[in-house]
Amino acid sequence: RLFNFSAGPAALPEAVLRQAAEEMLDWHGSGQSVMEMSHRGKEYMGIHAQAEADLRELLAIPANYKVLFLQGGATLQFEMIPINLLRGKASADYVNTGEWAKKAIKEAKRLGRVNVVASSEDANFSYAPALADWKLDPNAAYVHYTANETIGGVEFHWVPDLSGLPGNVPLVCDMSSNILSQPVDISKYGLIYAGAQKNIGPAGLTLVIVREDLIGQAVPQPQTMLDYKTHADNDSMYNTPPTYAIYIAGLVFQWLKRQGGLTAMQKINAEKAGILYDYLDRSSFYSNPVRIEDRSLMNVPFTLKDAALDDAFIKGAQAQGMVQLKGHRSVGGMRASIYNAMPIEGVKKLVAYMEEFAITHG
Ligand code: PLP
């Protein structure tokens, strides 16, 4: 298999894919594929409940939070969040850290009043603004931030602690590209959301973890499918859920537990990213624009000394079995996405290739 550095859909753990292949035609003696099962049948209901239970264990999700398995991607959450939490309220606070935060802000602005309370645009989105600089409104409906900017490679390595501030404003977080990469204190958040196709499982599943008191508050009440209450009241089975994606996500959750859970993953992820950043810092051929303390452990963008060499770099990597290293079309350069499923050998191989390329083209 190739080493796939895609930002998403991204590589999945090989052990998960092997198990899914083994179970493809006959899941646990049921005589059918999970894909073919009724979502109301006892086999699938068991898979669904187990996936939720394992996720709750991995993230230590408190009992007063609902886990919702939805569709529509993180992009639909850009709209569902204001529809459910902002309607009927004066305004919401957003932190602008790059491409994904901007998209969340754009959609929220169509649905209500938005205050951009902090931004790193002044330095080309190369850092995570300090909490002390967030001009928070104690009456905001919520505060939204993007824990990991997948394109810019900027990650918050701290949780904005709003507990000392007046207003008891819920914290809302787009964790699409770093969820499950490390332990996180869910109780600090009102709502967390993530598209599945990076660290959870296949595209088509969207995860929402939401504190119960935030559900069912919108005035006027949202349309049925856009209302968190609909999905919370029906265990994410109001309509047909993305059953196969949930099954694969469940296998990923079990794989994560076998690795030692999120504390173990954090250690491995820090080691993997460390190998890449250490080399980038030693090299005069490559560079990474992000402030050191805010560098993402999941997405590592870098540029070559001469952009004219980009194509040769990508072709050479491909020839050695390393794919999807091209940076996002909006920023250019390269990007290595090294989510949970990327083995450390993949990162070592990439660094060895980068060294060799720098010598031959330097
Ligand atoms: N937010 C972040 C941080 C992302 O990286 C992405 C996708 O890459 C999205 C939102 C959009 O997710 P989706 O494509 O699942 O709608």
Task: Provide a compact summary of the structure.
The protein is 35% helix and 15% strand. It is an alpha/beta fold and 362 residues long. The strands form 4 sheets. Strands 2-10-9-8-5-3-4 form a 7-stranded mixed β-sheet.
Order of helices and strands: EHHEHEHEEEEEEEHHHEEHEEH
The helix tally amounts to 9
Q: In angstroms, what separates the terminal alpha carbons? A: 30 Å
CATH classification class of the largest domain? Alpha Beta
Helical residues, percent: 25-40%
Arithmetic mean pLDDT: 97
Under CATH, the homologous superfamily of the largest domain reads Type I PLP-dependent aspartate aminotransferase-like (Major domain)
Give the helix/strand class. Answer: alpha/beta
Q: Per the principal axes of the C-alpha atoms, what is the gross shape?
A: globular
Name given to the CATH architecture of the largest domain: 3-Layer(aba) Sandwich
* CATH fold name of the largest domain: Aspartate Aminotransferase, domain 2
Strand order of the largest sheet: 2-10-9-8-5-3-4
Profile the largest sheet. 7 strands, mixed
Percentage of β-strand residues: 15-25%
Tally of extended strands?
A: 14
Low-confidence stretches: none
Radius of gyration: 21 Å
How would you describe this structure to a colleague?
With 362 residues, this protein is an alpha/beta fold. The chain has two domains: 244 residues, Type I PLP-dependent aspartate aminotransferase-like (Major domain) (Aspartate Aminotransferase, domain 2, 3-Layer(aba) Sandwich); 102 residues, Aspartate Aminotransferase, domain 1. 35% of the residues lie in helices and 15% in strands. The protein has a seven-stranded mixed sheet. The protein has a three-stranded antiparallel sheet with strand order 11-12-14, with helices on one face. The protein is globular and about 60 Å long. Bound molecules: pyridoxal-5'-phosphate. Pyridoxal-5'-phosphate binds next to helix 3.
